[in-house]
UniProtKB/TrEMBL annotation:
Keyword Transferase: no
Lineage top rank: taxon: Bacteria
Pfam family, one: oligo_HPY
Entry keywords, A to Z: ATP-binding, Nucleotide-binding, Transport
Name assigned to this protein: Peptide/nickel transport system ATP-binding protein
InterPro entries per record: AAA+_ATPase, ABC_transporter-like_ATP-bd, ABC_transporter-like_CS, Oligopep_ABC_C, P-loop_NTPase
SMART domains given in the database record: AAA (SM00382)
ABC transporter domain segment(s): 2-250
Molecular functions per Gene Ontology: ATP binding; ATP hydrolysis activity
GO BP: peptide transport
Amino acid sequence: MLKFDRVSKVYRVGSFGGDELTAVRDADFEVRPGEVVSLIGESGSGKSTLGKMALRIASVSRGAITCDGTDISTLRGNRRLKEYYRRVQGVFQDPFSSYNPIFKADRVFAVIRSEYHRGVSDAEWREKVRSALDVVRLDPAQVLGKYPHQLSGGQLQRLLIARALLLDIDYLVADEVISMLDASTRIDVLNLLADLKARGMGILFITHDLALGNYISDQTVILHKGSIVERGGTEKVFGDPLHPYTRKLLASVPQFHKKWEEVEAELRARELADTGSRDYHLSTAQEVPGDLVEASEDHFVQPFVPGVRA
Ligand SMILES: Nc1ncnc2c1ncn2[C@@H]1O[C@H](COP(=O)(O)OP(=O)(O)OP(=O)(O)O)[C@@H](O)[C@H]1O
């Protein structure tokens, strides 16, 4: 299990690094094998920072990320890090940035071979690559031996996923992998992620797109200004959103048959109807939101003051 245990990230900012910016505050959730967890939030909410910390691209300031019980910040030395990256890999929004334009795209496979599969014969390796490409539905004739600029964003994205498959990873951090793709390729990559999940891979699916999150995930985590405001089973979070911010996010998905004023009025009416009736509502006297409370089974929300805009 990939577990985020009250994880915070504080960046040093300002001209001399004298200021601090808390990008993530006390994030607490987990990704289990064979489960897709969507991390949803607006730009700047801290989503990528959480993904980067899981991949050790950014350090954890407070709390811990553990992989099957091992605090990943304690992994030192090439061998232990290599072991970790054999289990946990990331694929990012802009697939082009993961390739060196002067090398052929399938060099990413050669690197994996020299790092992790040295003893494998040429024939065996060709077969491994072919079967990984098969899983990501790429035709070897169309992609092998090509330079990155000769391939589409969707093909490059799928090559990176094939690379992850060659490592036989357990967890994938997929950071806005769909955003740059056209509509038909999006569906292909989403279906591919669903296949990987069915094979037992745990996926942290980072997105600002609620519809994508709803489509693919078992668990949903809603992030707002670095804090988790709501999380739980996807059907609970989408079917019965509790936090005003989640409701606002869901309402902001275009509802073409309604005017925005109508949507806003409905939101307010719903919140007023709830006022005082739930144990995660705070009075204005307790305005500082604390830890998430369990509203129902597998559904957690950050306490909030009803009627106060998120
Ligand atoms: N290396 C860094 N140094 C300082 N501040 C950073 C750094 N990386 C991110 N931040 C800040 O941390 C906050 C969270 O950024 P992050 O990239 O995690 O958000 P995000 O939700 O992934 O946004 P987006 O969807 O736009 O990628 C932002 O305010 C961002 O400006």
